[in-house]
Amino acid sequence: MADNAILPQRSAGNLKTNPNCLGDDVSPPVQWSNAPERTRSFVIFIDDQAGRIGLGVSHMVVHGIPTNVSSFAEGESSSAPQGDRFVAGKSTPALLGWFGPCPPRGNAPQHYVMTLIATTLEPGELAPGLTKAEVLKALEGGRALRAASHVFRHAH
Questions:
Q1: Per-residue confidence of the chain (156 residues) as pLDDT tens digits?
Q2: Which residue, 11, 57, 60, 156, could crosslink 51 as a Cys pair with Cβ 3.0–4.6 Å?
Q3: Where are the beta strands (DSSP E) in the chain?
Q4: What burial class does residue 131 get, using C-beta atoms within 10 Å of its C-beta: 0-12 exposed, 13-18 middle, 19+ buried?
Q5: What is the number of other CB atoms lying within 10 angstroms of the CB of residue 30?
Q6: pTM over 0.90
Q7: Which residues on adjacent β-strands are paired with residue 153?
Q8: Cα–Cα nearest to 76, from 62, 94, 64
Q9: How far apart (Å, rounded) are the C-alpha atoms in residues 38 and 51?
């Protein structure tokens, strides 16, 4: 997706109890390149920083991505990882993998930030099920090498 593009409806949440969740909960495709020389793994966060009335919502926490992985196909990070391509962390509702957005009807398009971080952590160094805050804490002390971000939108 181009920066500031609209997230496809199929990537929105799919909760039968919420009329704002009309998607298929399929994670978007992601691709990256140009990692710093000392990179051992990558981390990806996808957040709605204005969600929950400014408290934020983590829609995806993925870490332990080895350097031989430079993309995820659509849907690949929707649930538990296959093989050793990533380690799933917890989104805000404590789900592993992708948590599709469900912005309130009638709101202006919500903005989401995808952040990729190159790290010196070995791919299996962190346990599965960590929250964004726990992963960030593990990256302190010079373990984060470089970051890039991408913004997209979703609306009803």
A1: 778 888 888 898 888 787 878 889 999 999 999 999 999 999 999 999 888 888 889 999 999 999 999 999 999 988 777 778 999 999 988 888 888 988 777 666 788 999 999 999 999 999 999 999 999 999 999 999 999 999 988 765
A2: 57
A3: 5-6, 30-31, 41-48, 57-66, 71-72, 87-88, 110-119, 144-154
A4: middle
A5: 22
A6: yes
A7: 6, 111
A8: 62
A9: 34
Measured distance CA(128)–CA(23) in Å, rounded: 26
How is 51-77 classified by DSSP, letter by letter?
TTTTT-EEEEEEEEEETT--EE-TTTT
Question: What tokens does 150 get?
Answer: 């991408």
Nearest CA to 9 out of 18, 17, 51, 20 is that of 20
Six-digit token string for 29: 């495709």
Scanning the structure block, which residue is given the tokens 């409806």?
9
Beta-carbon contacts of residue 69 (< 8 Å; ≥ 6 apart): 42, 85, 86
Q: What pLDDT, on a 0 to 100 scale, did the predictor assign at position 155?
A: 63
- Phi, psi of 118, deg, nearest 5: -85, 135
CA distance 100 to 102: 7
